Inverse folding.
């Protein structure tokens, strides 16, 4: 099934690409402390696809996600969400774009402790001053299995439940793309598997686009496609991955890193 | 541990700035007040003191004993005695003087610097060289004839007077016009500090202040080697024992010191109240800041404990931090205090009563006070958070999540109610109180203090319902309002402590504004109730009088229907000194509205008085009863019959007597102190007022006031008190603003990640700013609401006391002012949020993910 965009953005002329980067470069510091985090990365994320970005620590995978999601500004190159070029946007339209077109799932859940689970889920809609689509909301809530806990505050929920709230929050506004930053990093393996299952279901059943950064081969195994980053460059790509195959690729990086 | 404390202070510089500012304000007021008081005392001492520099002893006339033969000359201080004194061994020089008081008008006809004790007058007594060494001439010549005067250069400059001008002046009787012939300089500190000096020639001065050929004092200076007391003994042997006395300069200086210190004591109180309030309010800020600092550092402290720091070391480290902050605040506050001391005289002088000028005097007292108060308050306020820090268990270092502080709400509720109950118990019975007796006043003060404390203790409990209520309003602005409300509720104790400042200042101002407004209206009603006249012409003191001939002139002034003279004096009755008005029984009802409870004014006469209801109640009098009393200077008690009891009346004072009898023993025999003027209908106008001034010869000693002016004068004390309270509100508001900035800045820092999330999932900068602003307004609104409630309750309870003191008092709410107070408080909240809101809005959404 396909989603019907609620937002007034023009239809995507290049169907199939939800977000893309072109020659994306990010440099931190200068002089002796200059660090190139991303080196001319060009990648597209297809609609209704679950993509995992992998790589060893410090390879630039988080930076790639932050730039692609409009949280960080690249040093050079361009980022596109749908047809919108992010580099041209000032803070306010960029904020509105994040609010309406992007969903986030963070490693540390990052729910607002003062709001109930339901209030957290509808927060992006509340900020936009819109009423949630009740049918959609019910569907999302029942999918992540939170129906009985909507009145609870985050402190009254377990880590897994909190992250499910976060997933529901990301889905509630029907964004064009959801970015996940190590969404299972703080969870035990069973809760992690649940959350990954929901993300995959949202792609399969709801037609969502999900991009997730992870260093866990098992988590990446839930994705449709895995891209590998090393030293700020795209080095490999794999479709229909399994944890074993991913592990093999990762081992190659390790040995290369050790020998170089 | 000292190093840790110093490092901590440096690390939290920005956070501690607000604390330093708050304590600094308190210290500034405390030390500023002390410096001001010292300076004022010094200036007063200068103003009230005569220079005794080269005077050893002074011979003055002794009061003629009562019943002395009438044919005796009034004084023995004449040239003969002066010559005799010059012959006493050890006397180097003899300087006879004729001293008195004279008020004069400036060139534009208005009284010039007229106030008690600031307008000395003297005789120009030429020495052997034809000049008076005390008053060197700078222009013109010495006064020589009966209509010539000289003034000092300061007076001439202030009054725009020039040699050759005609000057209107008065000593104690009618106004006189004399010609200014000379300008002198003087070292008389009374004059330099903002007074006037008038010099007459010897004969004129003797006529005005003594009797022809007599002096008021003879100053003697001692030859080298002769002590004051030795000289006094020798002089005492020469002068007629019952008619003159000799005083050493040292004794007079000592007497003067006592007088001066009683004068200046009052000036210390008012700013001290400011200082106290500023420090009280400021201490909340200190407690709050240190609590938040300790909470933020819980893990760090736990780590210190885990690696072996003892509890005492942790406490000490927090306290050392407080000492450092206190020292910085004290130093800054002291400097600020000097500024306050410099501007205070100007502020306090606006009420017409001029304070003498003088240089700032910085003694050790204010320095010590600044240090003690600044460091003391800070350390005391940091004590609680320090104990809290010590209780941090080492295991906290290993925990990740920050636990919200668990407040012991039940203990708080019990403590709060335990305070509230006696507060209410003390205050409520006062609503039935009849008068402002000292006991009642004390319980009022105590009750209000306890009430405020109870409110502060209960504030965290009240925060939840109150903020929910306010949230109904802020909730209208959607999710930002909802978030703001939730954030304010997150730590009710912190919110309450932040709001406490506004609570205290709003409560104070509300209470006093309501009482002030009610009193003002009551005074207004009262003035129109007691006074039947349109104008009152009065002397400035009871020891000066209106020229009796002026009464006739006033009666004949165009537009005047009737004028009645009143002689004011004192009545010593029932062990207390009261004011008595001597009136004409026939015409008193024309100019005063007297409400007789029994008897009437018709029966007033020698030996027959009427008393006010308060005096009647205090002395158990009623119409027909007899009472022992004395009037004025009379020393012997006489029996008086009470012929009437009237409702308290500010125009009639405490008692009424027949004018002839009151005048007989007046301080200025046969004078009158007031003329009450009834005008023809519709002739109250500035023109009539001018004509009345003319009728009393533009006498600088007299005031001509219409009703509004009288009400203003009567409300003077209350008016001053209100000004003081608005000053307090200003301080309270400034400190409250600092507190809100502080709390918000810290909570923004604590919520970095939350704000980052909000930014990441689509709240724009304006939204974040609005959220923080709304939170501040919510906190401010909470403090204001609570303060308003407490203040109104206090005003209702204490207002009854005013009812005893001020007739026709009824609670009148000054809606405009109250609204203004509320708006001001909310505006402060919004303003205080500006910086933290900007900082929050500047947070990058990435912070949410980056900070772990």
């Amino acid at each position: 099934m396909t989603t019907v965009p609620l937002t007034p953005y023009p239809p995507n002329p290049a169907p199939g690409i939800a977000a893309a980067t072109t020659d994306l470069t990010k440099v931190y510091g200068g002089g002796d402390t200059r660090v190139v985090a991303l080196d001319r990365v060009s990648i597209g994320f297809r609609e209704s696809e679950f993509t995992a970005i992998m790589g060893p620590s410090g390879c630039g995978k988080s930076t790639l996600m932050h730039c692609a999601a409009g949280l960080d500004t690249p040093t050079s190159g361009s980022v596109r969400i749908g047809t919108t070029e992010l580099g041209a946007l000032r803070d306010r339209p960029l904020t509105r774009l994040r609010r309406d077109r992007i969903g986030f799932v963070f490693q540390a859940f990052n729910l607002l402790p003062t709001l109930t689970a339901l209030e957290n889920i509808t927060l992006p809609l509340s900020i936009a001053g819109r009423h949630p689509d009740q049918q959609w909301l019910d569907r999302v809530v029942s999918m992540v299995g939170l129906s009985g806990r909507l009145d609870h505050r985050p402190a009254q929920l377990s880590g897994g439940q909190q992250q499910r709230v976060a997933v529901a929050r990301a889905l509630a506004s029907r964004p064009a793309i959801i970015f996940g930053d190590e969404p299972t990093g703080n969870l035990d393996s069973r809760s992690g598997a649940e959350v990954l299952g929901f993300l995959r279901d949202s792609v399969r059943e709801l037609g969502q686009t999900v991009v997730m950064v992870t260093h866990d081969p098992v988590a990446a195994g839930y994705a449709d496609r895995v891209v590998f980053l090393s030293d700020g460059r795209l080095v490999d790509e794999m479709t229909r991955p399994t944890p074993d195959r991913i592990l093999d690729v990762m081992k190659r990086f390790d040995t290369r890193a050790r020998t170089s | 541990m000292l190093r840790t404390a110093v490092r901590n202070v440096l690390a939290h510089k920005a956070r501690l700035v607000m604390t330093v500012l708050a304590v600094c304000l308190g210290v500034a007021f405390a030390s500023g007040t002390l410096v001001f008081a010292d300076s004022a005392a010094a200036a007063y001492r200068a103003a009230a003191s005569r220079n005794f520099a080269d005077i050893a002893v002074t011979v003055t006339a002794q009061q003629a004993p009562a019943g002395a033969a009438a044919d005796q000359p009034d004084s023995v201080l004449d040239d003969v005695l002066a010559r005799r004194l010059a012959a006493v061994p050890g006397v180097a020089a003899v300087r006879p003087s004729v001293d008195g008081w004279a008020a004069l008008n400036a060139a534009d006809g208005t009284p010039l610097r007229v106030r008690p004790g600031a307008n000395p007058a003297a005789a120009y007594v030429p020495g052997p060289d034809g000049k008076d060494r005390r008053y060197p001439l700078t222009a013109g010549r010495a006064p020589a004839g009966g209509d010539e005067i000289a003034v000092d250069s300061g007076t001439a400059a202030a009054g725009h007077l020039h040699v050759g001008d005609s000057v209107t002046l008065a000593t104690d009787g009618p106004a006189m016009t004399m010609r200014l012939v000379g300008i002198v300089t003087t070292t008389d500190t009374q004059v330099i500090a903002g007074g006037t000096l008038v010099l007459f020639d010897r004969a004129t001065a003797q006529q005005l202040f003594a009797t022809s050929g007599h002096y008021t004092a003879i100053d003697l200076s001692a030859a080298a080697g002769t002590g004051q007391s030795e000289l006094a003994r020798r002089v005492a042997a020469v002068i007629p024992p019952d008619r003159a006395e000799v005083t050493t300069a040292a004794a007079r200086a000592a007497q003067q010191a006592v007088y001066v210190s009683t004068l200046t004591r009052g000036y210390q109180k008012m700013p001290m109240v400011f200082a106290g309030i500023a420090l009280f309010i400021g201490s909340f800020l200190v407690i709050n800041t240190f609590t938040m600092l300790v909470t933020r550092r819980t893990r760090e402290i736990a780590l210190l404990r885990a690696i072996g720091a003892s509890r005492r070391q942790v406490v000490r480290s927090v306290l050392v931090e407080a000492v450092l902050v206190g020292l910085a605040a004290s130093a800054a506050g002291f400097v600020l205090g000097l500024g306050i001391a410099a501007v205070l005289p100007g502020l306090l002088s606006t009420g017409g009563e001029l304070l003498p000028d003088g240089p700032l005097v910085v003694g050790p007292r204010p320095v010590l006070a600044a240090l003690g108060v600044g460091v003391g308050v800070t350390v005391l306020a940091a004590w609680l958070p320090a104990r809290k820090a010590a209780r941090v268990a080492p295991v906290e270092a290993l925990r990740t999540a920050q636990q919200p502080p668990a407040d012991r709400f039940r203990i708080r509720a019990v403590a709060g109610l335990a305070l509230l109950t006696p507060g209410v118990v003390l205050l409520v019975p006062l609503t039935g109180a009849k008068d402002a007796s000292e006991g009642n006043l004390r319980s009022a003060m105590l009750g209000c203090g306890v009430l405020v404390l109870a409110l502060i203790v209960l504030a965290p409990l009240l925060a939840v319902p109150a903020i929910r209520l306010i949230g109904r309003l802020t909730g209208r602005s959607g999710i930002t309002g909802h978030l703001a409300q939730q954030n304010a509720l997150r730590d009710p104790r912190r919110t309450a402590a932040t709001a406490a400042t506004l609570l205290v200042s709003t409560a104070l101002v509300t209470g006093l504004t309501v009482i002030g407004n009610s009193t003002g209206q009551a005074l207004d009603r009262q003035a129109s109730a007691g006074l039947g006249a349109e104008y009152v012409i009065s002397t400035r003191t009871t020891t000066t009088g209106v020229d009796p001939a002026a009464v006739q002139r006033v009666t004949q002034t165009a537009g005047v229907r009737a004028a009645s003279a009143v002689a004011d004096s004192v009545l010593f009755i029932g062990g207390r000194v009261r004011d008595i008005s001597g009136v004409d029984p026939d015409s008193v009802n024309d100019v005063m509205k007297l409400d007789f409870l029994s008897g009437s004014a018709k029966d007033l006469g020698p030996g027959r008085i009427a008393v006010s209801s308060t005096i009647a109640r205090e002395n158990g009098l009623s119409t027909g009863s007899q009472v022992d009393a004395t009037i004025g200077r009379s020393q012997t008690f006489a029996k008086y019959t009470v012929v009437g009891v009237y409702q308290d009346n500010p125009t009639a004072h405490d008692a009424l007597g027949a004018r002839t009898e009151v005048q007989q023993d007046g301080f200025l025999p046969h004078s009158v102190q007031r003329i009450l003027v009834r005008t023809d209908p519709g002739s109250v106008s500035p023109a009539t007022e001018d004509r009345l001034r003319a009728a009393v010869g533009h006498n600088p000693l007299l005031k001509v006031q219409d009703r509004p002016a009288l009400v203003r004068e009567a409300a003077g004390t209350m008016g001053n008190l209100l000004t003081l309270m608005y000053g307090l509100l200003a301080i309270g508001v400034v400190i409250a603003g600092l507190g809100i900035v502080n709390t918000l800045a810290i909570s923004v820092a604590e919520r970095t990640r939350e704000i980052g999330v909000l930014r990441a999932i689509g709240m724009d900068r304006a939204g974040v700013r609005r959220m923080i602003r709304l939170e501040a307004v919510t906190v401010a609104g909470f403090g204001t609401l609570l303060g308003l409630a407490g203040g109104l309750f206090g005003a209702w309870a204490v207002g009854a006391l005013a009812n005893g003191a001020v007739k026709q008092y009824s609670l009148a709410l000054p809606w405009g002012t109250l609204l203004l107070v509320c708006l001001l408080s909310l505006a402060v909240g919004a303003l205080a949020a500006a910086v933290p809101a900007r900082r929050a809005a500047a947070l990058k959404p990435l912070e949410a993910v980056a900070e772990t």
